Amino acid sequence: MHSDDQVLAYPLQPAGPLDPPAEWEQLRQTCPVAEVELPTGDRAKLLTRHGDVRDLLADPRFARPTSQDPGAARVAPEGTGGVAAEGGSSMAIAAKGEEHQRWRRTVGKWFTARRMAALRPGMAGIAEDLIADMVAGGAPADLKAALGFPLPVYVICDILGVPAADRDRFAHWSDTFLSVTRFSREEIQRAHAEFTDYMAAHVADKRADPGDDLLGALILDGGPEHGGLSDEEIRATGMSLLVAGHETTANMIGKMVSLLLADRDRWQRLVADPSLVRTAVEEALRFDANLGFGLRRYLSEDVQLGDDVLPGGSTVICSMPAANRDGEVFAGAEEMDLGRSPNPHLTFGAGPHSCLGQALARTELQVALEVLLRELPSLELAVPSAELERVEGLLVGGLREVPVRW
Which Gene Ontology molecular function entries are recorded, alphabetically (predicted)? Predict the structure, then answer.
């Protein structure tokens, strides 16, 4: 355990835009429960070993901190840029306990592998159109802006039954919520009010004519009296899906392609053998060192973790990307193995709070990669990978842009 004079400033700084912080390996070996200080001045415990991170994330007793919890809770919730908590879009969804599990069961029925397979041709069509537009605009281009950012928004619009004509409004709202610095508080609040009004009206329209989409399915399940969701919960679900599902996947598309293009042999191997796409996506998810802040858990009671006792009342940061480099679990952990299987990475979390949309994210990443390999086999980075720039900001793990040519 680090003593008080060895408290680390968190987040840790990486060696390069695609590289992990040097401290991860040392912490896993010598200090798996480290004391860190957050930018707010709060203290927290940092976990870096795969087993510790998996066990804590899978523990149903603990969820992410809320504003009601003491301790180091003054960092905005994961994946929201802080807006959902401020504006209340997620407040209709319980954060933990039986209510949260009821919501997960109800919504999770829709996010099956079978349902995602049915969405796949539509996703591929969207990706093909976006890539064709990028090519028409000429090289170099920003792959993140051309494909990474719009693809998940357009897919989410399809899932929510939102008309294609409204896609760009959704993209603007999501952009506003997820930017830490570009928009004023007033602009963010206005976007949130517009989005809330839009989704409330959209749910009302769906109630009249449900259709074959997620919101329609939730309405057809019946309300709370039948074990289903209220209109407010359905609205909040639609809003949360945009915010949580867009940011992470948009960033991951750019990071995945950058990792594969940083070493040209990786890309050429996939061009030669596209059957590796599924395992390559999983390995990019494991190998990504730029996942943002990590998942936080507030401990409502003492927890024994190996030789350490984590005291109740503390906040713990679970570093999934550090755990994903644990050599005790992954042979050749510092190498990107495109055929790695099995690959028990923790990028989507674990247990009762694991990412509900992981089947969707995986499908989007696979489709984006498949279409790029087919349409642009000559794709390459337009700058050296060391010159890529990370997005600065606690919660967002991503690159500012991904300049490419072909």
Answer: heme binding; iron ion binding; monooxygenase activity; oxidoreductase activity, acting on paired donors, with incorporation or reduction of molecular oxygen
